[in-house]
Specification:
There is one protein chain. The protein is α+β, with helices and mostly antiparallel strands and 419 residues long. The protein has 11 helices and 16 strands. Helix 3 crosses helix 9 and helix 5 crosses helix 9. It is rod-shaped.
């Protein structure tokens, strides 16, 4: 029976765990641990003493835990059985990972279904040797970085897919926006993975998403949608706005109405910069408290709606979704606030809307005895002056809606009131 006199690391340099081949020692055996490793003694399947860098004799005082597990002779000549595992503490660099299978999701900005794949690299190190051996290695003779990635591949894939889906959908970030901020997104997803790896005594030193890819056909579709949207933004409107203008034009029937519809849908325009950094948007999207119960609303910017010129914020999706409501449901909604929803179809209305953008219903917005003051925009009783701001009502102002009238007009161009 061979008795090891010197126990030291002699395994492959890239091995995360390597077991010393001899398992019989005595109280004079020397244990040498270099600065890149820790050594764990295992007796009868139980983890015992853990040693950091240095040279030690396996005498009774130096191995108190092992001494309790077995009867170790004090003379120094009789052998005792013990396994020694060397755990590599060096950072393991460029470990490759990838999602298992594509993520089928809808781009929140371009409304195109895509099959998203992600891959990248990571660096890890063993932070707690005891926990790592017990929960990950299981005292096998050797454990390599490839073995670690093999064990974690499913966990990494499922969490990355979950994070990307939630960030895109809940954060309202398009495929192109995700690809433009891989560094920030990598940091946010690393925060989610840190807690999982910590359970196994592993620390993620860095986590990098190198690419977020889609099949060629999907990329072609979303690229074409991006080009179309860019052209519309240059012209001053988006696809949703174009659809609303077509609906309004179909039902309105006069040119004056279109001016008001244009003002109403101006709320859908890209009216400001995205609030917060990409990392903050991603963290909020992954926060369960911030995830909406229903489908998130869409808008031109892919984030929050921005409304100008005092108009109320209007959700484009609401106009289309409300089409499917029954008349009873619409009436029930309208009964709560007749000035905010269409009395016919129940669709939400922009402020001072003359016609419903969903069904074309003409909306009675003011009392016949009231007038909208051109000076302050408030609805006030008819008279010679506005009691809010003192504005003097001229004779060329519509008595119903307050719009200016051209000379000789017989009807108001805004509301159709007979003059």
């Amino acid at each position: 029976m061979a008795i090891a006199e010197v126990i030291k690391f002699e395994g492959p340099q890239d091995a995360l765990v390597w077991k010393f081949p001899v398992e019989d020692f005595n109280a004079t055996s020397q244990l040498i641990v270099d600065e890149t490793h820790e050594a764990l003694l295992v007796v009868n399947g139980n983890e015992a003493d853990l040693f950091t860098a240095g040279r030690r004799t396996l005498s009774v005082p130096n191995i108190p835990i092992a001494r309790k597990l077995i009867e170790i002779p004090t003379g120094g000549d009789s052998p005792f059985p013990c396994k020694v595992f060397f755990i590599n503490k060096v950072h393991q660099m460029d470990l490759l990972w990838g999602t298992q299978g594509p993520i089928a999701l809808e781009d929140p900005l371009y409304d195109i279904f895509m099959h998203v794949m992600a891959n990248g690299s990571m660096s890890i190190s063993v932070s707690e040797s005891r926990k790592f051996m017990l929960k990950m290695v299981g005292f096998r003779d050797r454990f390599d970085p490839d073995d670690l990635i093999s064990k974690f591949r499913g966990i990494i894939s499922s969490h990355v897919k979950d994070c990307i889906s939630k960030i895109m959908i809940n954060g309202m970030l398009s495929y192109f926006m995700m690809n433009a901020h891989l560094f920030e997104l990598s940091g946010v997803i690393k925060e989610r993975l840190d807690a999982i790896f910590d359970e196994y005594g592993i620390k993620i030193q860095y986590f990098n998403i190198e690419t977020i890819e889609v099949p060629e056909n999907d990329y072609k579709k979303v690229s074409e949608a991006k080009e179309r949207r860019s052209g519309r933004l240059i012209e001053g409107y988006t696809w949703q706005e174009e659809r609303q203008m077509m609906i309004a034009e179909k039902f309105a029937g006069n040119q004056g109405t279109m001016g008001n519809v244009g003002g109403a849908v101006s709320g859908f325009m890209v009216g400001g910069a995205m609030s917060g950094s990409i990392a903050e948007i991603a963290r909020n999207a992954l926060n369960p408290d911030n995830i909406p119960a229903g489908k998130p609303p869409k808008n031109a910017a892919g984030t929050g709606s921005h409304v100008g010129n005092g108009a109320s914020a209007v959700n484009v999706a609401d106009f289309f979704n409300n089409k499917g409501e029954s008349e009873n449901a619409a009436a029930e909604r309208a009964s709560g606030n007749s000035s905010a929803v269409c009395p016919k179809c129940g669709a939400e209305l922009p402020e001072n809307a003359k016609f419903c953008l969903s069904c074309g219903e003409k909306i009675q917005t003011t009392d016949p005895n009231m007038i909208v003051c051109p000076g302050c925009g408030k609805t006030v009783p008819k008279g010679k002056f506005c009691f809010e701001c003192g504005y003097k009502f001229a004779s060329n102002v519509c008595p119903k809606c307050g719009a200016n009238l051209p000379e000789g007009a017989k009807f108001c161009l805004e509301c159709g009131e007979k003059i």
